[in-house]
Amino acid sequence: MPEIRVSPRERLVLTGIIELYIATGEPVASQAVADHFAHKEGLSSATIRNVMASLGDAGLLEQAHTSAGRVPTAAAFRYYVEQITRPDAPLGRIGVSTSIPAGGASLSEQRRGQIEEIFSGVTSSNEYLERTSHVLALISSGLGVALASGTADQILEHIHFSRLSAGRVLAVVVTRAGAVLDRVLVLDREMTHLELETAARYLNETFHGWPIERIRTEISRRMDEERAAYNQLLTSVEELCRKGALTVGEGAQVLYMEGMANLIAAEADRERLKQMLLALEAKQRLVDLLTAYVNGSQQEVRVVVGLDEASPAMQDLVLIGSPTRLGETSLGTVAVIAPTRIQYQEMIQAVRYVARLSERILEIPEQ
Q1: Per residue in 201-240, pLDDT tens?
Q2: What pLDDT is recorded for position 280?
Q3: Distances in whole angstroms, Cα of residue 209 to Cα of each of 85, 134, 150
Q4: Class of CATH domain 8-72
Q5: Which range has the worst mean pLDDT, 35-49, 58-72, 270-284?
Q6: Contact yes or no for 329/152 (Cβ under 8 A)
Q7: Dihedrals φ, ψ of 324, to 5°?
């Protein structure tokens, strides 16, 4: 997006218009802006009308009817979020469609208490993600979404290797949930029955009860740190894993959604509502949207204003999302999808708070 250049006065007026629009949901007239800035010198009604005309020419305001007030465009909301997240902004840096480090205004104690109460009694990642979609829908008046990682709930119970033929090995993985997953591995070198038995024993004794995704990361780490002591064993284990022994459940992502009624109530245009609902009900599109915009390897909130790339009917929606983790393991992505007139500062902090709550309410497997 090209950089938007506005003067300090234009920025002040634009911010006022956006905040009035967020508060009322109605097109903002110049008189309302004048009343809002009644205490500001140099902002007469005539000056404000001229500034609003300039902002309209810049593509930051639009006017549905000649006699109506102005409405911020998606570009205006993007600019607004960029401004409230600048490093030198009074509320600190939160970010928009880029990295969003910790900082900014804190979530109110009342809101934190409400969130904590809803998560009371949660003991599994599935429960956590399901409650996440509920709480984010509740506090945003939008759609709460939680996307489970493909391996988030797959815990190793047992693994077994069988030699099929030269260079081919059958890996059978049993998860704690009772799923039995098998995969034929094509290896770069021949492994004996003893090597396969030793590798399976090492995995079962060392990583029983670990999330499968985390096992792969840990094996890579140990390869670097302990190569001298366990060179032959770890080399065998690493190759078996690299060839897919613990690559299970890919694509089996679970999507939790709640709050569709909130979006229905907020959209007056019936045809656009129909198209928006069709887009949102195509769950794979939502999965692709979350995967494209939220980086699961980083603990950062992302804000994306205008989701028309996913569907033209979603041009007036905003995505606020964050990855959520448990130690080194990715649990998935949590997000709010709501109309662009959302309370940005509170929702960014709420998404961040909920995403990090997993570390407190869920048990990290012992190493």
Answers
A1: 988 998 888 877 778 788 877 777 665 555 666 777 777 8
A2: 75
A3: 41, 29, 17
A4: mainly alpha
A5: 270-284
A6: yes
A7: -130, 140
The contacts of residue 95 (CB under 8 Å, 6+ apart) are 81, 85, 101, 300, 301, 302, 303
Residue 311 has φ and ψ, to the nearest 5°, of -165, 135
337 forms beta bridges with 143, 319
- List of residues 6+ apart from 246 with CB closer than 8 A: 156, 159, 173, 212, 215, 216
Q: Which two three-digit tokens encode residue 238? A: 């690493």
Q: List the chain domain ranges.
A: 8-72, 109-149+253-361, 156-242
- Tokens 């815990």: give the residue: 155
Residue percentage of the chain with pLDDT more than 70: 80
Helix, strand or coil for residue 329?
Answer: strand
Burial of 121 (0-12, 13-18, 19+ CB in 10 A): exposed
Q: Residues, the chain, total? A: 367
Amino acid at 158: H
Asked if 33 and 52 count as a contact pair (C-beta separation under 8 A), the reply is: yes
Strand partners, 170: 162, 184
Residue indicated by tokens 């704690």: 176
pLDDT tier for residue 152 given thresholds of 50, 70 and 90: low
Q: Tell me the CATH class for 109-149+253-361.
A: alpha beta
Q: What is the per-residue DSSP string for 98-149?
A: S---S-SSPPPHHHHHHHHHHTTT--SHHHHHHHHHHHHHHHHSSEEEEEE-
Q: What is the pLDDT of residue 230?
A: 55
Find where tokens 């692709």 sit: 288
Taking the C-alpha atoms of residue 353 and residue 119, their distance in angstroms, rounded to an integer, is: 12
- Return the CATH class of domain 156-242: alpha beta
